[in-house]
Amino acid sequence: MSAYEPGAPSGPSPRPPDRWDVKKLVILRTLRERGTVTATAQALLMTPSAVSQQLTNLAKQLGVPLLQAHGRRVRLTDAAHLVLAHADAVLAQLERADAELDRYLHGEAGEVRVAAFSTAVPALVVPAVRALRAAHPGITVRVREAEAGEAYELLAAGDVDLALSLAAHAPTARDPKFTRVPLLADPLDVALPVGHPLAAEPGLRLADLAGEPWIFGGSGPWSEITIAACEAAGFVPAQAHSAAGWTAILAMVEAGMGVALVPRMAAARRDGVAMCALGADRPVRHVVAAVRKGAEEGATVRRVLEALRV
User: Fold this and answer.
1) 3 state DSSP class of 160
2) pTM of the shown model
3) Among candidates 154, 115, 162, 123, which has minimal Cα distance to 300?
């Protein structure tokens, strides 16, 4: 008697072929990152009701509860976290499969979409594009300027293939979605007005500038970097002026309105500004690239990463 004929002993029901739905797993993972159904819907360009429906269907397909009410929000269940641990591995393996298929079909040819912060575009990305044109003309790079938060949203959503940011604002190496690749340590020099008494000082230290008026942003990563570097040198910088763009900052330095830390990648020559390398306590900022885990094995992405590291 067949196990499926009337009267046969009952056994485990067959698993539906679409039990593991990659699209729904991506929605669940995005909910873990964003925290709310509304934020998840915004990130994935869906409606909140569609997100809820997809997750309800996924829970039915897997046969386990994935969400529980927590006030006006939802919380992932232990089963959801178990599912996501496997989903991270599955999605990374699919990225590797895409990379291998792309290599099989196109070799070292294709398009790589790069999101990079403003100073990295002229200092790192443009030279990399020039080098790739000469050495690997089949690779096309499309560039999108974006700060770290937006860059990693674009990367997670699949809208770009590679994101550049400062290490302090990148996901940690433990993030299961991304592979981080260190690119360089960018020294921070101090911008002084030409004629400043310390402009020609050999072995200038950051601590020597503790009494100077400082120019840096009111908030954001560069404000944090400047304050952290000065505090590490033993003082809190007195902010005289606030600006976010390097053109404005260097113009104020040139006018004798204060001093500023400037990453070497961002430095632009101005006749009235002396760019001074610091001595033993010279701070640096670390620049990293990130790709979706598994995608680093693709031929085109690997070539772009190599060009960025030169």
Assistant:
1) coil
2) 0.69
3) 162
